[in-house]
Amino acid sequence: MPERDAAEARLIEAPALQALIDALTARGYAVRGPRRRGDAIVFDEVARLEDMPRDCTTTQSPGRYRLADAPGAGYFGFSPGADSFKRWLHPPQQTEFRFRREGAAFVPIESAPAGVPRQAFLGIRACEIAAIGVLDRVFLEGPYPDPGYQHHRDGSFLVAVNCASPGRSCFCTSTGTGPRVERGFDLALTELHDSRHRFVVEVGSDRGAELVAQLPGRPAPAAAIAAARAVSARCAAAMPERFDRERVARRLRETPEHPRWAAIAERCLGCANCTTVCPTCFCTTMVDRTDLAGTTATRERHWDSCFTLGFSHLHGGSVRASTAARYRQWITHKLSAWLDQFGMLGCVGCGRCVTWCPAGIDLAAEAAAIGDEPGAPSGSDAHAP
Amino acid sequence: MSAAPEATWVPRRYRVDAVRPELNDTVSLELAPAAGEAPAFEPGQFNMLYAFGIGEAAISLSGDPADRARLVHTVRAVGPVSRALAGLAVGASVGVRGPFGAGWPMSAARGRDLVLIAGGLGLAPLRPALLRVLADRAHYGRVAVLAGMRTPREVLFRAPLATWQGRTDLEVEVTVDRGDADWSGHVGVVTHLIPQLELDPRKATAFVCGPEVMMRHTAERLLTVGLEPTQLFVSMERNMKCAIGLCGHCQFGSAFVCKDGPVLRFDRIARALAVREL
Questions:
Q1: What is the C-alpha radius of gyration for chain B, rounded to an integer number of angstroms?
Q2: Which residues does chain B have within 8 Å of residue A106's beta carbon, measured at their own beta carbons?
Q3: What DSSP element (H or E) covers B75?
């Protein structure tokens, strides 16, 4: 997407967010955005501005997430929770086909293609825009595009929001994916709390320009644009780089027998929370069933995790039998192998795996340790990690 | 960009035309398409075979690549899907997606000496390579087949091996780990047969398929006799659910075995092969 003119940016009053939701709805989009459910922020359907959380914040750190009221924090004063856009683009369960038995043979059961409304994602962050870019690369740009992902992704409208302050688990400055949204969006909001509660709306696409023109507001003055940039700059400054991504990628490639794996395995429960909340984890398995009579068979595709033993199962057992090997696979894939496979990192620095790890393992800290410590020599006499 | 779900995920239906018992737990299935021709395939490629209601498994093509009337797959009953496939009767339906993956580099090996080294069922994906060579025999130098099996009762493709042994333009050696009273052939692991070949390492290309430990030792021995690592190819196996690079299961270092492999050039994976549990 080409860089667009900053002069297209608009300034809208906070209540105009409702007009934004309405305009999206009027164009046939089902709007998904942040909602407060119990003591967490989830990502779900939003029809009215009141559906969105208001004046709350989260504190996040390794293994810890707390939502709290925060008067004056506005609509986006929190960091996203475990939930994300991912389940709307890459559903946790999809049916791939059904067959009916006829004698010794079987025939397909035709079903009408599921109608998914066009989706608009409201309030997704720079890391999440980056994650959608990662999934686009994985699912759509290889030799076999995934029809399921394409079906959900087609026509989706992305309204990003620039983060004002990072959670303690966040590290998008280390992965080069934030905190400011720079490309891959239709509209990008920056929430301003100066004299009044307003939003600068930057335009990233033609349809974004068309939509924002319908909202009450005015061209953003230079001062408002500067204020928006300052929000991102302050956020970035509050999030110093945790690791050198090129060095970590190289280390992971060159030293698979790093002693750090054994130390992490002492703590890692192998629970797969990290892969479940990760916005770029795309792995799936197939689940086959029949009805009780054995006359119809269904094949479903479910999210899977490289932390399960079955993931690497071959006749004779699992290739990655130890927790250390499974953690190595996950972090090596995210921070190194992904570059070889897809020309980009598989980690966007959102910090979900850090916050939602019940053992509080901090991926950024582990990456930093891998990057700085000398690895054990690797060779033909390699030992289990 | 458009991708029809049926093309990506829904298997084409084939009919089991013949079931050839190979070993106690191993059969070869001849599959005919419900309509039209079978797709062309390259030696070393595989299909995802679907057993109704049970699931899919990645199975190498083991038949003649010149035969477009049928697909041949040699299946050992080891898990739920392969047991169901190996138990199919003539007339049953099988789902097929494929062919997938990178096969043996047949054209790169043209004009060179070629040695095919198999361990057990690893002979199955090498068979189409040999059949392709035999159809084009004049364009290859020396051609040797070394096959290691566990016992004389577990010698796969016994009849074709005997036929190949009778040809003057092939060198075929079979060895077993443990012999019996009736076995008069080689006893010992297949790597022991390599020095006796007296390969000209400058002219030889090797295709190796078998259990991973066998391929590691075979590669080591081939390098010891001077083979270039760039002339050595192995066929890897990993858990696979999709075969098209979308499910993530078959990763081996940076490679997706399903689309970058299953046949991989040894020098590109030598380091990864040396790492346990990768």
A1: 18
A2: 13, 52, 93, 95
A3: strand B71-76
- Domain end marker among B52, B72, B100: B100
DSSP string covering A130-157: HHHHHHHHHHHSSSS--HHHHHHHTT-E
Task: Give me the residue label for tokens 């009767």.
Answer: B89
Q: Write the single-letter amino acid at A210.
A: E
Cβ–Cβ under 8 Å, residues A68 and A342: no
First to last CA, chain B: 34
B264 in the same domain as B191: yes
In this predicted structure, what is the pLDDT of residue B3? 46
DSSP bridge pairs for B146: B117, B173
- Which residue in A143, A314, A340 is closest to B239 by CB distance? A314
Instruction: Give me the pLDDT at residue A374, please.
Output: 57
Task: Look up the ipTM and state it.
Answer: 0.93
Question: What residue type is A94 in one-letter code?
Answer: Q
Query: Which residue, B74, B100, B126, sits at the end of a domain?
Result: B100
Backbone φ, ψ for residue A180 (5° rounding) = -85, 135
pLDDT at A145: 95
* A chain contacts of residue B11, beta-carbon cutoff 8 Å: 97
Q: How far does chain A reach from its first CA to its final CA, in angstroms? A: 43
Percentage of the residues of chain A whose pLDDT score is greater than 70: 95
Q: What pLDDT sits at residue A315?
A: 84
Least confident of A12-26, A253-267, A293-307, B230-244: A253-267
Task: Determine the Cα–Cα distance for residues B106 and B129; give it in Å rounded to an integer.
Answer: 7
- Is the per-residue pLDDT at A3 higher than 70? no
Closest chain B residue by Cα to residue A285: B241
All residues at 6 or more sequence positions from B136 whose CB lies less than 8 Å from its CB, including other chains: B110
A155 confidence band (pLDDT: 50, 70, 90)? confident
Q: Is the pLDDT of residue A300 over 50?
A: yes
* A337 neighbourhood in chain B, CB within 8 Å: 251, 253-254
Say if residue B116 is in the same domain as residue B18. no
Give the count of beta carbons closer than 10 Å to the beta carbon of residue B18. Answer: 13
**pLDDT per residue over B167-211, tens digit each?**
999 999 999 999 999 999 999 999 999 999 999 999 999 999 999
| Cis geometry, peptide bond prior to residue B99 (ω within 30 degrees of 0) | yes
B52 plus B170 within the same structural domain? no
Cβ of B1 and A294 within 8 Å? no
Is B269 among the domain residues? yes
**B278: in domain:** no
Contacts of A96 in chain B (CB under 8 A): 5, 9-10
pLDDT digits (tens, 9 = 90+) for B61-84: 999 999 999 999 999 999 999 999
User: What is the pLDDT averaged over residues A65-86?
Assistant: 96
Decide if pLDDT at A316 tops 90: no
pLDDT for position A194: 86
Residue of A nearest to B260 (CA): A341
Structural domain count of chain B:
2
What residue spans define the domains of chain A? 8-237, 245-372
User: What is the three-class DSSP state of A129?
Assistant: helix
CB contact under 8 A, A139 and B8: no
Q: Are residues B190 and B110 in the same domain?
A: yes
Q: CB–CB of A96 and B5 under 8 A?
A: yes
Option in A256, A294, A311 nearest B278 (CB): A256
Written as six digits, the tokens of A104 are: 């010794």
Q: Which chain B residue is nearest to residue A311, measuring alpha carbons?
A: B249
| Residue among A90, A286, A323, A326 with most chain B CBs within 10 A, to mutate | A286
**Nearest chain A Cα to B272, which residue?**
A256
Q: State whether residue A342 sits within 8 Å of chain B by CB.
A: no
